[in-house]
Amino acid sequence: MRALTLFLLVLLLLLQWSLWLGKGSWLRVWQLDSQLTTLRTSNEKLVDRNLALAAEVSDLKQGSSAIEERARSELGMIKRGEVFFQLLEPRPAAAPAAAKPSAP
């Protein structure tokens, strides 16, 4: 009876081996699932970026206002006959020195 129990235990361990540690084991499935989640998140960000770039390309192809806006903001270009005014933000005044508490 003892030999039969030992045989069945070894057989059970051999059958469970591939489930827990083999090629398609639970651990490997869990690793692939977490990797898949990471890749999906990355792909969603890339799709959003691609859509934004496609919209920008379309805008640049269709009209000159987008090109003009880019030339003004990125290159600092102005049209002939235009006057350029640059407004600077005032510098914040230095904070007044903290008043020292007077002794009673």
UniProtKB/TrEMBL annotation:
It is found in: Cell inner membrane. InterPro entries: Cell_div_FtsB, FtsL/DivIC. It is a single-pass type II membrane protein. Residues 1-3 are cytoplasmic. The keyword Ubl conjugation does not apply. GO terms for biological process: FtsZ-dependent cytokinesis. Residues 22-104 are periplasmic. It comes from the Bacteria. Essential cell division protein. May link together the upstream cell division proteins, which are predominantly cytoplasmic, with the downstream cell division proteins, which are predominantly periplasmic. Belongs to the FtsB family. This is Cell division protein FtsB. It comes from Rivihabitans pingtungensis.
